[in-house]
């Protein structure tokens, strides 16, 4: 196992900068997920760690060794790709042992490593089969087994579950978590799926346009996003972002339909975030504002509802069943302690924390 240190890493393709002077420290044994929208640079960053992309500038250290100029085979890493990249003419055993044979390891050591990996991944009974005789999940396990047998310092995962169906992805998420808990090898995991990142990683690094937008533990990013970008990227369904205006210590929302005590916040335009699970449809005349239901989406254990307050959309999500139909008028309430406030110009979080804002009146 080893630390991974990225120091001023930059990657240019011609005049286009994909990674901009990025610094990142990954601890020994840590499982770090790189997330972000398509084109943010997360896969390019992973490929630079692997040695598949050259650095324009900066340095990459694995442990105490600068590997910036080393070939992939000399970095002591193992990579699991989105595609399984298995040799179709080889058995599972031969696929898993191939890299060790290239290293000229003793046959006894190879058999021991392959059998151990197969036992960890539940592949023992499939060792003599070929990839075409396996399911998608089993093939991905073989790809992980091929990485395990090398006993690398660092595992690199490039969206390894994106080719699987939804149910199998959930199963394989658990497999990867158990694998990391058993081996405790430093792991870097690239995914566009923030649910994967939330459930699997020790730490999430949110990337945007080749830079780190925010890094932290999954629930810290969920509870305290530093920007509107992170607030809307982390969490499903996405956070509601409302335009607000502070004047004389009062924050007005929904075009003035709701006034809030905003002492401590500067006058001017703000953005207020509220997660759908913190908005509720309430009975009778209770609640803060009146809205109109546009769409009801029953999900089984929870219901998502799209509403409008005037012309402003607001999404709710909760375990209560919603009997009202589209077009019905409803009263809406929300958790006063779960608001997030961002500067309207920079879209960065405003201090003091929005949890200090209190609802004062409804106009």
Structure description:
- One of its GO terms (molecular function) is ATP binding.
- It holds the Pfam family TOBE_2.
- This is Sn-glycerol-3-phosphate ABC transporter ATP-binding protein UgpC.
- Belongs to the ABC transporter superfamily.
- Keywords: ATP-binding, Nucleotide-binding, Transport.
- By secondary structure, the chain is an alpha+beta fold.
- It has two domains: 4-232, P-loop containing nucleotide triphosphate hydrolases (Rossmann fold); 240-362, OB fold (Dihydrolipoamide Acetyltransferase, E2P), CATH 2.40.50.140.
- The protein has eight helices and 21 strands.
- The chain has helices spanning 42-50, 92-102, 107-121, 136-148, 166-183, 194-200, 218-223, 228-233; strands at residues 4-13, 16-26, 31-35, 57-62, 65-66, 77-80, 154-158, 186-190, 203-208, 211-216, 240-247, 250-253, 258-261, 268-274, 279-282, 289-298, 303-309, 312-318, 329-334, 339-343, 358-362.
- The strands form four sheets. The protein has a six-stranded mixed beta sheet with strand order 6-7-8-3-9-10, with helices on both faces. The chain has a six-stranded antiparallel beta sheet with strand order 20-14-11-12-13-21.
- The N and C termini lie far apart (60 Å).
Strand residues, percent: 25-35%
Q: In sequence order, what are the helices and strands, one letter per element?
A: EEEHEEEHHHEHEHEEHHEEEEEEEEEEE
CATH architecture type of the largest domain: 3-Layer(aba) Sandwich
Q: What's the helix count?
A: 8
> Can you summarize the main beta sheet?
6 strands, mixed
């Amino acid at each position: 196992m080893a630390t991974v240190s990225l120091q001023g890493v930059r990657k240019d393709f011609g005049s286009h900068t994909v990674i901009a002077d990025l610094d990142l420290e990954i601890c020994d044994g840590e499982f770090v997920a790189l997330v972000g929208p398509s084109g943010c640079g997360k896969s390019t960053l992973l490929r630079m760690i692997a040695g598949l992309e050259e650095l324009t500038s900066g340095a990459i250290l694995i442990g105490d060794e600068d590997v910036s100029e080393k070939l992939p085979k000399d970095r002591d890493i193992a990579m699991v790709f989105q595609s399984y990249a298995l040799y179709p003419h080889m058995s599972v055993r031969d696929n898993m042992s191939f890299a060790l044979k290239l290293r000229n390891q003793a046959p006894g050591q190879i058999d021991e490593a392959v059998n151990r990996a197969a036992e960890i991944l539940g592949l023992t009974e499939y060792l003599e089969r070929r990839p075409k005789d396996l399911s998608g999940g089993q093939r991905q396990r073989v790809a992980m087994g091929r990485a395990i047998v090398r006993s690398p310092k660092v595992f690199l995962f490039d969206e390894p579950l994106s080719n699987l169906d939804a149910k199998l992805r959930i199963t394989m998420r658990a497999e990867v978590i158990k694998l990391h808990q058993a081996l405790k090898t430093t792991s870097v995991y690239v995914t566009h799926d923030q649910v994967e990142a939330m459930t699997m990683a020790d730490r999430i690094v949110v990337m945007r346009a080749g830079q780190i937008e925010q890094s932290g533990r999954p629930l810290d990013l969920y509870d305290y996003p530093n920007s509107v970008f992170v607030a809307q990227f982390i969490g499903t369904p996405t956070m509601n972002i409302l335009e607000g205006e502070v004047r004389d210590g009062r924050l007005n929302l929904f075009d003035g339909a709701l006034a809030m005590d905003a002492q401590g916040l500067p006058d001017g335009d703000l953005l207020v975030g509220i997660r759908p699970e913190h908005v509720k449809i309430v009975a009778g005349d209770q609640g803060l504002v009146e809205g109109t239901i546009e769409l009801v989406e029953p999900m089984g254990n929870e219901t998502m509802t799209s509403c409008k307050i005037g012309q402003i959309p607001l999404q709710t999500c909760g375990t209560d069943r919603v009997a009202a139909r589209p077009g019905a008028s409803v009263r809406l309430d929300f958790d006063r302690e779960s608001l997030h406030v961002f500067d309207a110009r920079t879209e960065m979080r405003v201090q003091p924390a929005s949890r200090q804002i209190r609802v004062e009146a409804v106009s």
